[in-house]
Amino acid sequence: MPPPFSTSFTIFRQDPRVYLSVLVIVLALVGIAREPSPLPVSANGGATLIASQEAGPYRIDVSILPAPAVVANTHLSILLRSLSNDQIITDAAVYVSATGPEGAAGLGPIRAPNDAAPQFFEVNLPFDMEGPWRVTIAVSSALGEETITVPLEVREGGGGINWILLAAVAVAIVTVGVWTWDRVAGRRSQAAEEN
Description:
single chain; 195 residues; alpha+beta; Immunoglobulin-like; 2 domains; 4-stranded antiparallel beta sheet; elongated
């Protein structure tokens, strides 16, 4: 009588496709783990710089997460620097407004606080429609008041198919099917040998 697990692992010795299936599953799981979160948490580090403008005494860097901007929730991060000495400005009042395509509800002015990280003034913008938007950023500090406008193309978000996850599920189903078929075939051959 063969050991109890010998028939289950026979397929691994006979069919190299099983190794390929296991490899694809592992790679898919690694890909899923590396995929960025669709909900923005903070624009510090993972954000995409979309504008860097000089206005009066300021250099204003504007970043978004995710990029491109999406309907419902785009995270905006603003970094202020003094043009005279390149120092980061943390003591300022920053307000953000946005106007979109015809039919869109305007946003703001919304205060962008720098509570999470003092160097970044951050706010979530709940765009209600895809299309071209104009984001206006108003800055006020001891250096003075300035306003810049940044054009932004907003797209529909969250509707994409996660192909990696879909492939992983398909490979897992095939692998379980092959494993089950091998178990059933092994039991049949064992029963035939006993008779």
